[in-house]
């Protein structure tokens, strides 16, 4: 089935030569100012995963004002919007953004756009990702009207990237990948200067799962531990021994790592409790090892718990696989950025231990993620992700728009 978002204009598809000429030079100041204002509005009104109703409505209104036809996802937040028509012979290039914020306080001072919502903040840059894809879509819609975009483009604004296993699956279920041949995204990187991007062939993020373990057994007096299941000791041993055990059961090059974030048991000093709880994350750099991880971790937890006569209940929550950049799509991003800002604007980036649900799209279609520099050149202090003081140099929005726009144009020309 064809999806039509707006009627094409006249002109020669693919006209304009190199992507930088088709983009007609630099982004006009009026568009830059409008996008910065849009980003600041999102930043002031952060919403958690699957509750991004205001954000979704703001995007829908802006896209409709541009003559586009967005469709809200089946889950009620997030949307997709096509530019151009697609069929079996004209697959879509998708541009993906994520909408949700984090449940932490905004601690920035001295800026007029701090969060107005208590204990909510866009501390991972999703407001920037959303604005960049919106801006690229608006520019590409104008180029499509002029006949300068030969192949269709889809904007995907998904909810709940921060909620395991991620809102990408909701978007996919709602048809976000129907007709898509390639997909690209950007992610803010506070360690890269604005005006530059980081690229990498292969895995660029880690897999990330959540592990919850509940231990149970007979409690009692601390004077007679031999008559009890000493759950505090069992929990302590499990916390220290399970990570070491799984490290010896898998190739160390896989980077499989279990790190505990919470241990809770007992209420007083002279009573051995009947219940203990541990929770943490399992991260892995290698896709094949990630697929083995649940069975490996369950086996290790059960082995240690049994040793201390503790009953164990294991809740292994599958999160996200690694984001594995397709070489061809990565080179497409590289070519677009080189055309816009020269080869000096690209750096080789490291694989991160952070998780990203963009990986679910890459289980279905080839794609790539670029790290978008958001640090003001010359600034040494790093406002890291997932911190209340995180902020960006807003000129990164222009860079992101240029990158995604040039990528779509280059992709269109390559397939013309």
Describe this structure in words.
The protein is α/β, with parallel strands linked by helices. The protein is built from ten helices and 16 strands. The strands form four sheets. Strands 1-2-4-3-5-16-6-15 form an eight-stranded mixed beta sheet. A four-stranded antiparallel beta sheet has the order 10-12-8-13, covered by helices on one side. Strand 3 (92-98), helix 4 and strand 4 form a beta-alpha-beta unit.
Task: Give the topology, please.
Elements: H1 19-22, H2 29-44, H3 53-65, E1 71-72, E2 79-83, E3 92-98, H4 126-145, E4 153-158, H5 168-173, E5 180-193, E6 197-199, E7 202-203, E8 207-216, E9 220-221, H6 231-247, E10 257-265, E11 271-272, E12 275-284, H7 287-307, E13 311-320, E14 324-325, H8 327-341, E15 346-348, H9 359-362, E16 367-375, H10 395-414
Helix pairs in contact: 2-4, 4-10, 6-7, 8-10
Please provide a brief summary of the model.
With 416 residues, the chain is of the alpha/beta class. The protein is built from ten helices and 16 strands. The protein folds into two domains: 19-205 and 323-414, Aminopeptidase (3-Layer(aba) Sandwich), CATH 3.40.630; 207-320, Alpha-Beta Plaits, CATH 3.30.70.
Q: Main traits of this protein?
A:
single chain, 416 residues, alpha/beta, Aminopeptidase, Alpha-Beta Plaits, elongated
Which CATH top level class of the largest domain fits? Answer: Alpha Beta
Query: Strand content of the residues, in percent?
Result: 15-25%
Number of strands: 16
What name goes with the CATH superfamily of the largest domain? Answer: Zn peptidases
CATH architecture of the largest domain: 3-Layer(aba) Sandwich
In whole angstroms, the N-to-C terminal distance is: 22 Å
Taking Cα atoms only, what radius of gyration do you get, to the nearest Å? 24 Å
**Overall geometry:** elongated
Could you report the average pLDDT, rounded to the nearest whole number? 92
């Amino acid at each position: 089935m064809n999806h039509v978002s707006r009627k094409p204009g006249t002109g020669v598809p693919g006209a304009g030569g190199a992507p930088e000429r088709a983009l007609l030079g630099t982004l006009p100041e009026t568009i830059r100012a409008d996008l910065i204002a849009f980003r600041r509005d999102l930043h002031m009104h952060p919403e958690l995963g699957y509750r991004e109703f205001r954000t979704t409505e703001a995007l829908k209104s802006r896209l409709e004002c541009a003559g586009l036809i967005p469709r809200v996802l089946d889950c009620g937040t997030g949307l997709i919007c096509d530019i151009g028509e697609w069929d079996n012979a004209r697959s879509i290039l998708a541009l993906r953004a994520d909408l949700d914020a984090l449940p932490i306080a905004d601690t920035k001072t001295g800026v007029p756009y701090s969060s107005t919502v208590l204990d909510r903040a866009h501390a991972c840059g999703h407001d920037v990702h959303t604005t960049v894809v919106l801006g690229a879509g608006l520019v590409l819609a104008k180029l499509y009207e002029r006949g300068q975009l030969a192949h269709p483009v889809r904007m995907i604004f998904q909810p709940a990237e921060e909620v395991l296993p991620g809102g990408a699956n909701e978007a996919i279920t709602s048809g976000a990948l129907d007709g898509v041949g390639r997909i690209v995204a950007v992610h803010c990187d506070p360690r890269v200067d604005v005006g530059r991007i980081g690229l990498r062939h292969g895995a660029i993020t880690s897999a990330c799962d959540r592990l919850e373990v509940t231990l149970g057994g007979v409690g009692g007096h601390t004077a007679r531990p031999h008559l009890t299941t000493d759950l505090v000791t069992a929990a302590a041993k499990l916390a220290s021994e399970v990570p070491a055990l799984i490290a010896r059961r898998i190739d160390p090059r896989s980077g499989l790592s279990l790190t505990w974030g919470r241990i809770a048991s007992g209420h007083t000093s002279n009573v051995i409790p009947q219940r203990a709880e541990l929770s943490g994350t399992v991260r892995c750099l290698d896709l094949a090892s990630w697929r083995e991880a649940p069975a490996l971790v369950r086996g290790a937890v059960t082995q240690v718990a049994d040793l201390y006569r503790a009953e164990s209940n294991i809740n292994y929550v599958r999160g996200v696989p690694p984001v594995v950049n397709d070489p061809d799509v990565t080179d497409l991003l590289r070519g677009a950025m080189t055309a816009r800002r020269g080869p000096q604007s690209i750096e080789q980036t490291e694989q991160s231990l952070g998780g990203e649900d963009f990986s679910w799209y890459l289980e279905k279609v080839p794609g790539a993620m670029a790290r978008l520099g958001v640090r003001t050149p010359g600034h040494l202090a790093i406002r890291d992700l997932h911190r209340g003081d995180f902020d960006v140099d807003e000129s990164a929005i222009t860079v992101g728009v240029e990158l995604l726009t040039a990528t779509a144009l280059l992709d269109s020309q390559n397939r013309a």
